[in-house]
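R.M. (postdoc): so does anyone remember the format we settled on? I'll just put the structure tokens first.
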């Protein structure tokens, strides 16, 4: 079983940037497609970005396209989410998860092995 731990969150002003990390233990991440989700207060968890096991393909929610970049380093067993041009509406707890469904899905039910999340707060 793979365990995921997110880090890198914090408080940043609008327009700023952060890089989130998702470190895996227990099993290698190589071979798994991975994704990032987020959950804002009072809202459901929503898809943010996903990446293939090789890092060769990615896709994003429309709300973050052009601002967020997902990447991975399988040698370090880590997935990243680089966020630039942050907006107050990006404030949320960010989670990484393993894709257990079909490639291209944005459904929360198609992801598993959730980490505990890392808080991102963007002030206006």
């Amino acid at each position: 079983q793979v365990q995921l731990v997110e880090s890198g969150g914090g408080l940043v002003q609008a327009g700023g940037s952060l890089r989130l990390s998702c470190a895996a233990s227990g099993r290698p991440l190589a071979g798994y497609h991975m994704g990032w989700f987020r959950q804002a207060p009072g809202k459901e968890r929503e898809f943010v970005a996903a990446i293939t096991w090789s890092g060769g393909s990615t896709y994003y929610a429309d709300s973050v396209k052009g601002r967020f970049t997902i990447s991975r380093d399988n040698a370090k067993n880590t997935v990243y989410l680089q966020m630039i041009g942050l907006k107050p509406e990006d404030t949320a707890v960010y989670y990484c998860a393993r894709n257990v469904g079909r490639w291209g899905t944005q459904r929360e039910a198609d992801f598993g092995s959730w980490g505990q999340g890392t808080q991102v707060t963007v002030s206006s």
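R.M.: ...and that's the designed sequence above, right after the tokens. Also worth knowing: The longest strand covers residues 18-25. The radius of gyration is 13 Å.
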